[in-house]
Amino acid sequence: MNNKLKTASLCVQGGYKAGNGEPIELPIIQSTTFKYDNSEEMALLFDLKKDGYFYTRLANPTNDAVAAKIAQLEGGVGAVLTSSGQAANFYAVFNICEAGGHIIASNEIYGGTFNLFGVTMKKLGIDCTFVSPDASEEELQAAFRPNTRAMFGETISNPGCQILDIEKFASVAHRNGVPLIVDNTFATPVNCRPFEWGADIVTHSTTKYMDGLATQVGGAVVDSGNFDWMANAEKFPGLCTPDESYHGLTYVKDFGRMGYTTKLVSQLMRDLGSIPAPQNSFLLHLGLQTLHLRMAQHCRNAQAVAEFLQANPKVAWVHYCGLPDDPNHEKALKYLPNGSCGVLAFGLKGDRETAIKWMDSLEIINIVTHVADARTCVLHPASHTHRQLSEEQLKEAGVAPDLIRLSVGIEDIDDILADISQALDRI
Question: Which of 137, 131, 136, 134 shows the shortest CA–CA distance to 152?
Answer without folding.
Answer: 131
